[in-house]
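Q: Predict the assembly, please.
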Amino acid sequence: MARALPQFVPSSTCFSCDVCCRFPEADSFLRPYFTQQEITDAIALGVPQSYFPDKSGSQIDLVEHVGGEGYLCPAFDAQSGRCGIYERRPLDCQLYPLALMWDQSGQDVLLGWDTKCPFMREAPSSSIRTYAEEVKKLLGSDAIIEQLVAHPRVIGRFQDDVIVLGKLSHLTTRLTQQRTDPRLRPLMASDAPTFAAALQCAHVLGADTPAAFAFPYHYMWTSVLSYWWMELNDTWFLFAKSPDGWFMPLPPLGPSSLDRAVEQAFRLMQQWNGSSPVSRIEHVMDVQKSSMSVEGIRFQPKDGDYLYSAAALASLVGDPYKSHRALCNRAAREHAIASEPYRASDQEGCLRLYRRWAAQKCHDNQDHVGKLLLEDAEQAHQFVFQKHDRMAVFGRVVSVNSEIVAYTFGYWLTPQTWCVLLEVADRSVPGLAQWVFRDTCRTALAQGAVSINAMDDAGLPGLRAAKLAYHPTTVLTTWIATRTTI
Ligand code: SF4
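A: Predicted assembly structure:
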């Protein structure tokens, strides 16, 4: 059951207003939509079932307003001006005076506020925005997303008297996704155990496994792209849909022949994408590449993950680490730095830091694409702040004078390998990034890490130089597989 949404308009105002729950026509498109569960609840509270034309989910039928104008929701008590099922009213009504609607082109789901509500017309726009942000977060919860995916008619058509507050990208990708194949399932937090079982079954986890062979690596991006999975012949397939089409961010995971699964994967992607070159399998390990003999398959190298000795980076001993050591010492000398496990209450501080850090990066000459990537990354970081515990991702925050100046999140790929998923440090504090990375390595070492996986360099020369300067023990070789259309 989805959580109740907070109310913005005071009840006393609602009771004396005559806008809600009343409609000009019997078939008004603004009639509230009830899901199957909401219909069951409403009937249990006394709303006659005859008002619901489809018990699996429908807009409610209205009653004529005796002695008045127009039509009423049958749950509405015109005398008291109250909803008779207020505590169990549907999501559609809980949202009001906010509204979910498609944009004019039908491409994006928007959250807006209805100018028909007199209270909203007088409310300061800053408090509307703050409230909308809170609702937006709740609408991003798995429970509500699933409710909306199962009942897309809660989302109304575009209304030009609704002021748009923003797009709901995650919901849009989930909703507009054509169920290209009924076997596809959206990737959700509850799929983490299935993913882990598939990894075990495929025997791919070891010292040289790329960080991509882990649930959080992909799940954090579901806030930006849509990810889907299916199981065929005991093999687990993970697919992602970009604006260009379908691809596999990971090779198929199964107990038997990889060739057969790869054949199957390309057949599916080519069916969905046509001859578009977007069909590909990413993060193919070196060892997998050498055993693949699928007709027409081609490989190109992908940026590999940097692996380090946890002990070496925790101590930074010796000449190779002289400059890193000096920077750590400088940060510690100039600031009283505190590092603690991440708590839910750190979310706002981390977001503020991310925005400051992104602005610092933009100032250092990010191009347009770089700026767009930072915007996408903000969504992914926020997603991790909110859902880290459901993804088995662990975070730490670093503060100076009680202000968060850095954060880091990571996960265990194997009991010996710690992967650094996110690391953000205020760029205006000299040595802070080095101090945080050493702190991360020390924490992981204390918990049993032998190896630190710091992910790839995304093809960025500056990042490559910084990662190489830490003297990796290995830079993993991974491949992108494509296949000529058969
Ligand atoms: S269910 Fe309640 S809140 Fe919703 S329209 Fe009917 S009376 Fe109004």
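The chain has four domains: 1-9+96-176, 21-90, 185-303, 306-454. The longest strand covers residues 403-414.
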